[in-house]
Amino acid sequence: MTNDNPYDFLPLQSTGRNETDTANTYAPEDMIKIYEQQFLIPVPEEQLTEFLPALKSFYDIDNHTLDVSAIIFEAIADASIIYNHKIKAGRYQLLEGLVKEELERGEDDKNDSGVDSNDSEEALAYTLECKRTFFINDIEMPYYFNLFIQGDSYSTLTKQDTLLEQMYWFASDGTDDNERLGTINAQLASLDIRAMDLTTLYQIVDYVEDHIIDDPMIETLNKLLDDAE
Q1: Secondary structure, 3-state, the chain
Q2: Tens of pLDDT along 40-74?
């Protein structure tokens, strides 16, 4: 890290100047990198007021460029920035085949004649062991879960082994246990991931829940179910 780049900004090649010749222009993918660095570069508290001017000076950009970089990030980036963490959903894996589950029928499932009121399709369910890879600040974070499928509905049961799974259960428990949060942050630190407060952790978990299952995975599951029937 040199004196003319005290925050170790990424070297990026500009594509030219704007129409008023007041700032450099950059390719969309580089605009995303500029946007991300505003949040992901660790900055000592006493240097916070110096950081943004340094970033604009290094890339020779203005406030309008930063505003545009935010718009581009929201439009085309495949990740999300939550406080000073970037999280991204990666690929999914189906670890085993479908396991058929025969559900027990209770008395409430029978009509007055004692005959099952549900048809055989509604009584049939499947479970499937799955994995979704996430990335926090480009660090791979595996997430294992069991998928339960019945008819057109499904539910997930998260394992409790990996760090991301522990974060999920911490948020699900709704606790503010500082010791438990400290243990999670110690594990994050071992991966060179900055500590999270409760709000950040909850938002990370919300992102995970929203991205566990995506359209390509649903298409694959539908094919498996069709073959099973």
Answers
A1: CCCCCCCCCCCCCCCEECCCCCCEECCHHHHHHHHHHHHHCCCCHHHHHHHHHHHHHHHCCCHHHHHHHHHHHHHHCCCEEECCEEEEEEEEEECCCCEEEECCCCHHHECCCCCECCCHHHHEEEEEEEEEEEEECCEEEEEEEEEEEECCEEEEEECCCCHHHHHHHHHHHCCCCHHHHHHHHHHHHHCCCCCCCHHHHHHHHHHHHHHCCCHHHHHHHHHHHHHHC
A2: 999 999 999 999 999 999 999 999 999 999 999 99
